[in-house]
Description:
Layout (H helix, E strand, L loop, with lengths): L1 H79 L1 H18 L5
Amino acid sequence: MEQMLLEELRRTREGNDRLSTVVSSIEKTLAVMGSEHAHTVGELGKIQARMDVAEGDIEKLRSWRDRQEGARGLAGWLINSPVIGWIVAAAAAGWAILQGKGHP
């Protein structure tokens, strides 16, 4: 009986030794993965910062484009407006009359 207990104790120690070796290997692997992950997190932060700057630039470009489209829309409306044409014609006629080149 004592022999059986000693044999069981020996097997338990061997199992514990193998388990200790496996745990040690896992710890080393996790340490390596942790250091690689830290590098990845740092890179991710840099990428996010660049994305934030790019988004700001895109918003500025959109705002500029909207202002340009608005100015073109106003210029097109002024050029195509018959009322503006009449006002310009009246101003030109008034100018000619004031300069003495037109017939009152």
